[in-house]
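Hello Y.,

Per our agreement to keep a running log of every chain we model this quarter, I'm adding this entry. I've kept the format consistent with earlier entries: sequence first, then predicted structure.
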Amino acid sequence: MNILTFCSRKILFLLLFVNIYQLHSQNTDSIFVIAQKEAQDQYYQKAQLLCQSIIALNPTNNEYKIFSARLYAWQQQYDSAKNVIENVIKTDSTNIEAYDVLTDIELWSGNHQSLIEHTTNILTICSDKYKEKFFLKQAKGHYLSGNLVVAKQKLENLLLRYPDNNEAKSLLYIITQELYKNSISLGYLNVSFNNPYSPSWNFGILEYQRKLKTCPLIGRLTFGDNAIQNAYHVEVDAYPKLNKNSYIFLNAGVSSAKVLKYSSLSFNC
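Predicted structure for the entry above:
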């Protein structure tokens, strides 16, 4: 075999190798797109099978592995999801998307203390581009752990840096309401009709809420006037807790317009 023939075969082999590699890459990428589409349609098991097939062909592709972890998490298979994502982080300790999935897993699975620890560590290494997301997750961890004061402080600090974060505003409002044991609210309501012979109604509402640990109470005074008659209505709501996830709703009231006494009972969990 002369040198020319040898070199020609070498070049042919290299070209063949490149073509196979390109075809292989195109096939796995197209399968990945299909898996993503299946996940969008909530066919998670089918998407996971497709994802595992391309991971077998590309065992070093972390993008596929991260998506696989998400699929497990969406199916509430949190241990499997955590195992996959922790292996990704072992090989790529600066992969922010992997940390994003890991903190979602901890949040959804109720591991709030682990969520706090992970977000605290991540915030020391991630760029400003990602800090808003992880600050919010950290605040959620404190809130769900029952650390309302700390959660409130975290959210206030977050909003100083990111004042347009509506999710943080909503959570801060909820926490603020929960922290106040006593609250008073005053409201007004006008009800008008197209019929000129039907006078409009004006309602004034005064409400007091006392948050007791085992039985929150709400007292409410409503005064109504329609230029012809007026009346007041007094009622009390009570929410005695049965356990962590359930409570009973009790309501009793009386009106001056008509001899009306009533009570109601409902069970909520």
